[in-house]
Amino acid sequence: MARHIRIFGVPMDLGQRRRGVDMGPSAIRYAGLHDQLRALGYTLTDSGNLSVPLPENEPPDTSRARHLHSIAGVCWDIYQQALVCADSGELPIFLGGDHSLSIGTVSAITAGQPELGVLWVDAHGDFNTPEITPSGNVHGMALAALLGQGAPELTGIGRPGPKVQASQVVILGARDIDAQEKKALRAAGVLVITMREVDTMGVAAAAQQALAHFSHLSRIHVSLDMDALDPAEAPGVGTPVPGGFSYREAHLLMEILHDAGKVASLDIVEINPILDDRNRTARLAVELVASLFGKSIL
Questions:
Q1: DSSP 51
Q2: Confidence class for position 100, pLDDT limits 50, 70, 90
Q3: DSSP helix/strand/coil, 229
Q4: How many CB atoms lie within 10 A of CB 162?
Q5: Whole-angstrom Cα distance, residue 40 to residue 295?
Q6: What whole-number distance in Å separates Cα of residue 7 and Cα of residue 273?
Q7: Which residues make beta-bridge pairs with 268?
Q8: Residues in a beta bridge with 94
Q9: Do the beta carbons of residue 278 and residue 237 sit within 8 Å?
């Protein structure tokens, strides 16, 4: 794991309708991200926040993919700025913002180095397209776009077509998947480890199943949507779903991922401070980052 980390803030809440996740990057920094990482021996460069259009300044949008062009523009910006990490060997952390930003992050991380596993830790599948979406929210289309499905404006970030194959993706913690999404995920062949399966086998076995799926790959990108956790632990998210990871389950998952030694990049998304309790969700996110990057009990 690289010892120098570059942080990017992406204060975007164009991908869904509930305002507030644009404040996520500030909430995570305020919760002590830099201090935690430095205490673990990492050096840091914080590249600040990317410029993102405000929803209030967007024209009325009734399309099947709301704010599509503006989101694509931000994802292109993420892509171009994040390429520096591939050249320098830095480990990037992307602070969201809604999950649509991952279209840009994964596109950049796989540029020139497509051998990457993507662990999508999320209550949702994010595998809708404009044709099947019940909401029109692009944050629910991000993973499908990375597999080359959906609007060309999204599938063409960085380069046309898929950025990863289904065999390179695991969704972990899913418990709220739309009806047409289920069909699309099955057709694509994506491995989905649902919360029922986590409940049955335990989080350690679920994490090992995901790692076994990535055994042929040398790098893993973790895309952590904080709604993967139970709302009792992480109330400050825009789309909470009961029945998620507990505090210790989430930490154990991060600890096991660290032990594997393959994590090369990270997204932290969907923190909404407006809905939070005294920045509790951002503080938990920072604690999970610390576990992912090597903090241990002993």
A1: P
A2: very high
A3: strand
A4: 16
A5: 7
A6: 19
A7: 95, 224
A8: 8, 267
A9: no
Span 138-176, pLDDT tens digits: 999 999 999 999 999 999 999 999 999 999 999 999 999
Task: Say which amino acid occupies 46.
Answer: D
Could you list the active site residues? 99, 122, 124, 126, 139, 225, 227, 270
**What is the value of pTM for the model shown?**
0.97
DSSP symbols for 259-273: HHT-EEEEEEE-B-G
In the predicted structure, residue 115 carries a pLDDT above the cut 90? yes
Of the pLDDT bands very low, low, confident and very high (cuts 50, 70, 90), residue 262 is: very high
Contact indicator for 10, 52 with CB cutoff of 8 Å: yes
The whole-angstrom separation of Cα 269 and Cα 101 is 8
CA distances from 277 to 6, 13, 19, 206, 273 (A): 28, 20, 16, 30, 8
User: In a 3-state reduction of DSSP, which class is residue 285?
Assistant: helix
Cβ atoms < 10 Å from Cβ of 20: 20
Give the separation between CA 100 and CA 96, rounded to whole angstroms: 9
- Residue owning tokens 């507030």: 20
* Helical ranges in the chain per DSSP H: 24-30, 33-39, 68-88, 102-109, 142-146, 152-155, 179-188, 195-201, 203-213, 247-260, 280-292
CA distance 51 to 65: 21
Residue 277's Cα: distance from chain center in Å?
22
CA pseudo-torsion sign 133, 137, 140, 146 = positive
65: left (phi over 0), alpha (psi -120 to 50) or beta: beta
> For residue 90, which phi and psi values (nearest 5 degrees)?
-75, 155
> Contact, 7 vs 44, CB < 8 A?
yes
Residue for token pair 């210790």: 248
